[in-house]
Design goal:
By secondary structure, the protein is of the alpha/beta class. The chain is 28% helix and 18% strand. The protein has helices at residues 15-26, 52-64, 81-96, 116-131, 186-194, 208-217; strands spanning 9-12, 34-37, 42-46, 74-80, 135-136, 142-143, 153-154, 157-160, 177-183, 198-199, 201-205, 222-225, 245-246. The strands form 4 sheets. A 7-stranded mixed β-sheet has the order 5-8-9-4-3-11-12, with helices on both faces. A two-stranded parallel ribbon has the order 1-2. Helix 2 (52-64) packs across helix 3. The longest helix has 16 residues, at 81-96. It is globular and about 75 Å long. The model has no long low-confidence stretch (mean pLDDT 95).
Amino acid sequence: MDSPEVDGVTFTGSFDVGMKMYEDFAKGRYVRPVILELGGKNPAIVSRHADLERATIGIVRSAFGLQGQKCSAASRVLVEEPVYDELVGRLKEATEKLVLGDPTERTTYNGPVVNKSSYNDFKNFCEEIHQGGGRFLTGGKVRNGGMYDKGYYCENTFVTDLPYSHRLWKYEMFLPITTIGKVKNLDEAMQIANDVNYGLTAGFYGSAEETEWFFDKIEAGVTYANRPQGATTGAWPGFQPFGGWKGSGSSGKNAGGHYYLPLYMHEQIRTLIK
């Protein structure tokens, strides 16, 4: 990156690596563009007026699709108190129906996580959650024996009762682990949702009026409301630009949008007097 032949860099990956690249480029002879798409700690907020069937399907898909190993995964769920117990019951029932196994089989929903390091991280995070007072609504374990010895299999894990002060409410785990919290009202949910370094994607389930409030208040680059296909995931290439705010992206412009290509270009204003 020290070479003068490098005019800029584009990187998709972790926050720590992206920040190191950003800092290193800042030490060069002059400013060069560093376009970063980093991680996420994506919230799904559920109002007391939500369609809980839609919310259940959307949250489960976003939390555990691709084993939770995607920057847009729904890793935090914030639920208004009046519907908390019912939604938690629905999430438990839906998750326990998911098949963890051979990813080449049609009936399988989840395969193994990517490598041994992620597998060990999963075990360490689950132990940390247990020690921190969290309760495993689903999962919380790895699987061994038989076909499970052919890969690194981690159960789909919903966590309740973990204090909001715990670091894992803000740390991107990049695994099938999602924390669920109860809130008194939507203002409390929004405060918790925005109180992270990240701002990639976010989802909401509630009334039309509440949805407008959500879009106005949430600090995220890609937002969804009342979407059963995925609470926080599912950007369509060619139709929906993708990118984040705060620690999730360096430019404020989403990839695939009208404003993205100019980030790589230089303006030159030409004035000629004849």
